[in-house]
Amino acid sequence: MTIADTTTAAADTTADTAAGGATGTGAPALHFAGVRKRFRDGTVALTDTDLTIRPGEFVSIVGPSGCGKSTLLRIASGLDEATDGTVEVASTNVGYVFQDATLLPWRNVRDNVRLFAELEHLDSAERGRRVADAISLVGLTGFEKHLPHELSGGMRMRTSLARSLVLDPSIFLFDEPFGALDEITRERLNDELLRMFILRRFAALFITHSVAEAVFLSTRVVVMSGRPGRVKADLAVPFDYPRSPQLRYSAEFAALCGEVSQHLRSES
How far is Cα 83 from Cα 104, in angstroms, rounded to an integer? Predict the structure, then answer.
């Protein structure tokens, strides 16, 4: 696998992406070409996977369990390597939000959010400014001194988001971050994530099992097949940003969700 760490200001090139289905401009933020992944036990998780995500695009991947969605994300993050093919990542500044908030239980909200800034050795003043901005952006002002066990599941995930936002990543990888939350909390965090996306315009690769979540958040929805995983459909989402929560109840939204679901159910 080839990791091309080309330096690009991805966030700066995306402000003109106006519509949900619009294609981002500039060099790809993420590019997978002919990617295959075979594990040591012989299991083939991915085969001949091609996918390009440009700056300012929010691309969600849906597919059945075991189709390689999270494996693709791990390869993009550098946590795993492809067996064959090429992976190009246009920045070393990549945010990763896991299925679990992965907070340090002895650290309060402020100190958890500050962690990545500390590891990058940002000076104290800059670190404090970024932490305060990130906490405000995710709506946790007033909860800075709370420990993780004192927070709801949604608030813990907000803290995890803020922790990654501190470094202002140009690429964000999301591995089913809201899958364990109740529907109301999940929809609220979808709304918050969209607000952050509009403000920061990072490139996003988002893994989910929820078709409605994928359609609501994304500029494109990619459908993957079962084992071994491959891309079987790539659908543009035509809705403009910002997106009202009421969009979820429109006929156009339901029709696109139905189209994605049909691709999920099809054998081809």
Answer: 33
Q: Which domains does the chain have, with CATH numbers?
A: 3-93+171-265 (3.40.50.300), 103-168 (no CATH)
Strand ranges (E), the chain: 3-5, 30-38, 44-53, 58-62, 84-89, 94-97, 171-175, 203-207, 220-224, 231-236
Q: Which of 191, 235, 231 is nearest to 213 (CA)?
A: 191
* 226, 65 Cβ separation under 8 angstroms: no
pLDDT tens per residue, range 3-44: 233 223 333 333 343 333 344 567 899 999 999 999 988 888
pLDDT tens profile 106-145: 999 999 999 999 998 888 999 999 999 999 999 999 999 9
Contacts of 246 (CB under 8 A, 6+ apart): none
CA pair distance 243, 224, nearest whole angstrom = 25
